[in-house]
Amino acid sequence: MQAIRSILVVVEPEHSESLALKRAKLIAGVTGAHLHLLVCDKQHEHSALLSLLKSGLQEDGYSVSTEQAWNASLHETIIDVQQAEGCGLVIKQHVPDSPLKKALLTPADWKLLRYCPCAVLLVKTATPWADSVILAAIDVGNTDAEHQQLHNTIIDHGFEIASLAKAQLHVISAHPSPMLSAADPTFQLRETIQARYREQCKAFQAEFDVDDAHLHIEEGPADVLIPFAAHKWQAAVTIIGTVARTGLSGALIGNTAEVILDAVESDVLVLKPQALMDHLEELATKS
């Protein structure tokens, strides 16, 4: 978070109380990041609103710029501006689509999560972050270098948000159910699975000072377990990683991040591995 120098804030004129802007002010107030306010609309003029927001923020000491743009679709417009402005974080209020619309069309926020080359914070509630729980969800079962780097990024962001909001950081990882037929005896018993997962967590526990009471290794699918945990602890922010599958397989299977986004009752911060962000940035540059 401290490394983010510029934040893109998607302003939706129909929402007079901008939850996205509230979160952006909280983060920028601590990090000193520049705020770039964007209205995505090709039909109506919103210069008066943007001017009003800009002057108010500047009076409060924020560095601000504004823009109205539209390019083919909502997510493409946001990504184009993010690339042009070099923003390291996109903040947008999430308004869920109806089940019928979602069955027919891929939601714009899902597309934003899949294709945006930087971190995306989707704001779902007005719940204050202060004195709350920040939930960082990782997949300890994946031990390759890319996932390890993603895990560290998720926990690092969780630690920074918890620090700026004076909140508690909890870390959760789902593990598979025991299978007597598993070739590795470790995965035949619940106790041995949890022990292995906890062993793999020790490095980041030491680095980020996450004690055993704030580390939760639970059995079950991540897309069920994470929303359950977020509700149980009344999390204000849930931080997850995504491999951002695209194409037919992504449409059919769906990303865990997308399922979780619709299931949790908290804000959702979605992060990606650096290699994937580099690839998406390359695609955005070519488009």
How many discrete structural domains? 2
Work out the helicity level.
Answer: 40-55%
Q: Give the topology string: H per helix, E per strand.
A: EHEHEHEHHEEHEHEHEHHEH
Largest sheet: 10 strands, mixed
Q: Average pLDDT value?
A: 84
**So what's the CATH class of the largest domain?**
Alpha Beta
The strands making up the biggest β-sheet line up spatially as: 3-2-1-4-5-10-9-6-7-8
- Structural category is alpha/beta
Low-confidence residue ranges? 247-254
Quantity of strands, as a count: 10
Quickly count the helices: 11
Portion in beta strands: 15-25%
Our Rg estimate from Cα atoms comes to: 19 Å
Distance between the termini: 28 Å
What characteristic shape results from the CA principal axes? Answer: globular
CATH topology of the largest domain: Rossmann fold
- By CATH, the architecture of the largest domain is named 3-Layer(aba) Sandwich
Note down, in words, how this protein is organized.
This protein has two domains: 6-93, Rossmann fold, CATH 3.40.50.620; 133-284, Rossmann fold (3-Layer(aba) Sandwich). 46% of the residues lie in helices and 21% in strands. The protein is built from eleven helices and ten strands. Helix 1 links the parallel strand 1 (6-10) and strand 2 (34-40). The two termini are 28 Å apart.
